Amino acid sequence: MRRAAPLLFLTLLATHGGPAAAGETACWFENGAVVAPAAVGGIAGDYVIDLSAPHTLLHRDIAQGAGHVETALTLPVRLAGESVAAAPVAVQSLDYRAVGFRTPITGVIGADILDRYTLTLDFSPCRLRLERPSELRRARAGGLPVTLVGGTPTVRAAASDGLRGVSGPFALDTASAGGVRARGAADGPRQKPAGTLRGLSLDGTLRQNLPTVVAGDLPDGVVGAIGVQVLAAYRLRLDPKARRLWLTPVPAASR
Q1: What domains can you pick out in the chain, each with its CATH number?
Q2: What would the 3-class secondary structure string for the chain be?
Q3: Which of 66, 180, 182, 192 could serve as a FRET partner for 18 with CA atoms 20 to 30 Å apart?
């Protein structure tokens, strides 16, 4: 269950004694997406956290209501107690991404913000932690190699529909309801699976009969995106500086 109002207050104003430590915030899982309180240019609200989105987005209607008429802005961004003083933000209609959410989606926090930190994401309970590179301890061993493709972190995986197979870089989609997302209409909803994928191999594990979403753009060179139905089985730790991703399995009883 989400608790947006008190979490937003505690996270953005950084009051003492709150439940979230510095660089950390509670999030929630809604409509197939990870959502967290954030502020872009002083516009606080519910933002989708999407590692598969190269750019941070602000909903056009909300931006215009705040007095922004341009479609390309440079604004401060605040998330999980961390701040970026000036970041590029694209303004566009996000009605297609807001389908099925109980409250308005203010924007999308993309990889251009998230890859400035080492990110740790727990799905149950939902918790997002951001660590600045200068604060990190000695790099951890192991993990999967990460390659940036079109500004999006990707890992190597393989997928098959039973007749044909494909392998290559897959983005990490923390904003789609299915197990896998394939490239589709840019304004297509990501919460309604359009079919079933026969198999996905990731980190030596084969998963079969996964719901597949066919919607949304992906950078050139990205084969597909691994959705929340797969990612939620792990604790994610993504270190863009070391170019590694650690997937720590979570017991089924904890999900």
Answers
A1: 4-133 (2.40.70.10), 144-234 (2.40.70)
A2: CCCHHHHHHHHHHCCCCCCCCCCEEECEEECCEEEEEEEECCEEEEEEECCCCCCCEEEHHHHHHCCCCCCEEEEEEEECCEEEEEEEEEEECCHHHCCCCCCCCCEEECHHHHCCCEEEEEECCEEEEEECHHHCCCCCCCCEECEEECCEEEEEEEEECCCCEEEEEEEECCCCCCCEEECCCCCCCCCCCCEEEEEEEECCEEEEEEEEEECCCCCCCCCEEECHHHHCCEEEEEECCCCEEEEEECCHHHC
A3: 66
